[in-house]
Amino acid sequence: MRARLVVLVSGAGTNLQALIDACADPDYGAEVVAVGADRGDIEGLARAERAGIATFVRRVDDFAERQQWDRALGAAVADFEPQVVVLAGFMKLVSPDFLARFLTLNTHPALCPSFPGMHGPRDAIDYGVKVSGATLFVVDGGVDTGPIVAQVPVLVADDDDAESLHERIKSVERQMLVDAVGRIARDGIEITGRRVRVGGSAG
Ligand code: GRF
Q1: How crowded is residue 175: how many other Cβ atoms within 10 Å of its Cβ?
Q2: Atom 10 of ligand 1 has which residue's CA nearest to it?
Q3: Active-site hit among 47, 108, 168, 183
């Protein structure tokens, strides 16, 4: 049985594409059963459609209250009965109710707990760090605060700006995501407080 993934996106969807490509190998252990978004007309949705994957869109503005949107998003995700939900560049926070229903992973383009929020690469450049990177974590109630599943470092070059650093981070971030999600699908995940163990070895 392959693990069922629902991936939520808000933009370009290159992390989603990496997962779609990995899932083409039956030995990978997972399949993307649906892709959801908080907006239409984005490359992430187009990537899913090209791959023949079901899609859905739930826009915050279409609901009177944020809570209603969150419930509708949760219902749409639940329809696909995922073992894991992957936020791959999804630019919305989801509620504790959503997180209680689904094991939800997110990637962040910085080494948590440094530089949480929308501007990880820019904040790393502005601070002057020499090493940044990418973090895969289990989403909790905070902003990029959840238990860490995997991290990969990226050296900051003297002439980097936020964009060039983010692009280099994204290339290792995609591989990190593919590796970790595959291991979780095949071997499971154990979360004890802040400590995460994937399969038989510390993640
Ligand atoms: C990634 O760097 C992710 O960490 C951040 O937004 C970017 C999404 O890229 N939250 P993409 O849409 O997967 O290309």
Answers
A1: 13
A2: 89
A3: 108
- The SS3 of residue 106 is strand
Q: For residues 56 and 159, what is the distance between their CA atoms, to the nearest angstrom? A: 40
Distance, CA of 175 to CA of 22 (rounded, Å) = 10
- Report the run of H or E that residue 198 belongs to, with start and end: strand 195-198
Q: How confident is the model at residue 156 (pLDDT cuts 50, 70, 90)?
A: very high
CA of 166 to the centre of ligand 1 (A): 9
Q: Grade residue 201 by pLDDT with cuts at 50, 70 and 90.
A: very low
Average pLDDT score over residue span 109-137: 98
The pocket around ligand 1, CB under 6 angstroms, is made up of 11-16, 44, 88-89, 107-109, 170, 173
CB 44 within 8 A of CB 11: yes
Q: What does pTM read for this prediction?
A: 0.96
Kindly report the protein residue whose alpha carbon is nearest to atom 8 of ligand 1.
89
